[in-house]
Design a protein that fits this description.
Elements (H helix, E strand, L loop, with lengths): L8 E3 L10 H14 L3 E3 L4 H4 L1 H9 L4 H6 L1 E6 L1 E2 L12 E2 L3 H15 L4 E6 L8 H13 L3 E7 L3 H8 L7 E4 L6 H4 L2 H8 L4 E3 L6 H4 L3 H17 L3 H10 L6 E2 L6 H9 L7 H12 L5
Parallel strand pairs: 1-2, 2-3, 3-6, 6-7, 7-8, 8-9, 9-10
Antiparallel strand pairs: 4-5
Helix pairs in contact: 1-3, 1-13, 3-5, 5-6, 11-12, 11-14, 12-13
Organism: Rivibacter subsaxonicus
Protein name: Putative oxidoreductase
InterPro entries: AKR_Detox_Biosynth, NAD(P)_OxRdtase_dom_sf, NADP_OxRdtase_dom
Length: about 290
């Protein structure tokens, strides 16, 4: 069973850069929830292991009713060298049972919640043992510490390796009109096959769709401007609508503190592009027409 996440997910990657008080962070969370964005994307390493704590500080000011409406997504499996983790000697990956358990329990403490809705392995680990991961995840589920499990940035073969050991609920991938690879390397095909909704990070190409200056970025922006003008929406909304047009029903991650930008993403949920418009953007990005 897939997790019940909101149609747009609010990313928290840069929360440590916002310079906000706990009350200001809570106000942002409340505004997101008022708009219907109830799912929040984290990773233990964000902000040098600080963002989950910042979010948790805000949640401790929230009412129980608000806390119960949230779905927390977080990722683990990367070991950063950080003062917050003095035992880490070098950056590496770790999907051992001990590390998964320690990461989940640390995230629960930092966030101040009792359960993670969706836990993702952040990056593929070449030393991953599917049976060991499955055993660790099953134990954490039985203890009520997490509900669903998935992966992030995994190729179809890497995801299949885990899928045979335990069902995956998500694959969080880079996907945007400037990053077409998931359309052609089997990643989105696999999501359709498995019946899971991919999560799309960097849906605006790290902002390059809106302000990039190279030839490809300008071509794609021109195509999106045509869609935006036709439907009376922003270029960002047109870009989100292009992502949402895929039948796997991707869940875009906004990655912004700007509430108006989150509204632009939500507006795309009511805009279904026709095929020619979708392929116009694809062609602008690929630099050639379909074969």
């Amino acid at each position: 069973m897939s997790p019940q996440l909101s149609p747009v997910v609010a990313g928290t990657w840069r929360m440590h850069e916002w310079g906000w008080s706990p009350a200001e962070r809570l106000a942002w969370i409340e505004q997101c929830v008022e708009l219907g964005v109830t799912s929040f994307d984290h990773a233990d390493i964000y902000g040098g292991y600080s963002v989950e704590t910042l979010f948790g500080e805000a949640l401790r000011l929230a009412t129980p009713a608000l806390r119960q409406r949230l779905q927390i997504v977080t990722k683990c499996g990367i070991r950063l060298v950080s003062p917050a983790r003095p035992l880490h000697r070098l950056k590496s990956y770790d999907t051992s049972a001990a590390h998964l358990r320690a990461s989940v329990e640390a995230s629960l403490r930092a966030l101040g919640v009792e359960r993670i809705e969706l836990l993702l392995i952040h990056r593929p680990d070449p030393l991953l043992d599917p049976a060991e991961v499955a055993g660790a995840i099953d134990a954490l589920r039985r203890e009520g510490k997490l509900a669903h499990f998935g992966v992030s940035n995994h190729t179809p073969s890497q995801a299949s390796l885990l899928q045979r050991a335990l069902p995956l609920a998500a694959n969080q991938i880079e996907f945007s009109p400037l990053h077409l690879q998931p359309l052609h390397d089997g990643t989105l095909d696999q999501c359709l096959d498995l019946g899971i909704r991919p999560m799309a990070w960097s849906p605006l190409g790290g902002g390059r769709l809106l302000n990039g200056h190279d030839e490809r970025e300008r071509r794609v922006r021109d195509a999106l401007e045509r869609i935006a003008a036709e439907h009376g929406v922003s270029i960002a909304t047109a870009a989100y609508a292009w992502i949402l047009r895929h039948p796997s029903r991707p869940l875009p991650i906004t990655g912004t503190r700007r509430i108006d930008a989150i509204r632009e993403a939500l507006a795309a949920t009511s805009l279904r592009l026709d095929r020619e418009s979708w392929f116009d953007v694809w062609q602008a990005s690929a630099g050639h027409e379909v074969a």
